[in-house]
Amino acid sequence: MFRRNQPWLGTYVEISIRDDIDSDMAHNAIDAAFGAIAQVHRLMSFHESASDLARINAMAFEEEITVHPWTYQVLMTAKDLYARTNGIFDCTIAPYLQRQGLLPGNFQVDVTASMNDVRLNPYNRVRYDKRLCLDLGGIAKGFAVDRAIDALEQHGISLAVVNAGGDMRVLGQYPEEVYIRDPHDPKRMIHAGELSDGAIATSGIYFSKNLSIDRNASALVNPLQRESVMAANSFSVLASTCMLADGLTKVLAVGRNPTATYFTEFKAQVIIL
Questions:
Q1: What's the predicted TM-score (pTM) here?
Q2: Domain encompassing residue 174
Q3: Which secondary-structure segment (H or E) carries 179?
Q4: What is the pLDDT of residues 7-56, one digit of tens each?
Q5: How many distinct structural domains can be found in the chain?
């Protein structure tokens, strides 16, 4: 097995290859996978002033902004999730996170704005119909994992795992053991079974509540009420892609409805601990 990890996306990302291949091929594939993750970070980081996300937050209310196809794809999925979940998934929560000290800056926005006001025009162009501020942190990490898997496949890899702090995707029919952090004792990991050729993501408040200005706030936000989710549970979703699993964990945490029809529509399974 070939394995390497690097700090990205606010966590450590580990890439493992199980194929019986030579070292050069494996390391070239891993380099490409980390390159894809770095590209997603450059495009969608809230903290990078030159990112696509920073540019549309700064200018898309005044003019149409052209973004990278990857950014456009994530925005399309974010809008789809918003529509299918009746607003439970909404990336316009950035100003709330800023007020809690979980994101930098202090955007002045229209408090009535939602994902409905993000207009996606042809040729990867984005326009805001109201002054708003997006944060893609609830979905971009999963997308980065998917792009890393794509890069591995393009380099001839058929058996691999990309794990970004619990947002994990398995490539190929090789069962990978899945562990979920115990929300009541975050130092302890709970065995949750095996996963092959699919993805899992988990959300919980056990770390983010200690980073906010208000200890009664967290990075999990109910966009309908504009208030923090303070549940002591962890929320995991298994799906075909890590981007879907990542986004749907937030929907599960806010909606607390594991039998909701959108999980069936996305062929997703849920775990609440």
A1: 0.92
A2: 2-19+158-272
A3: strand 176-181
A4: 998 899 999 999 999 999 999 999 999 999 999 999 999 989 999 999 99
A5: 1
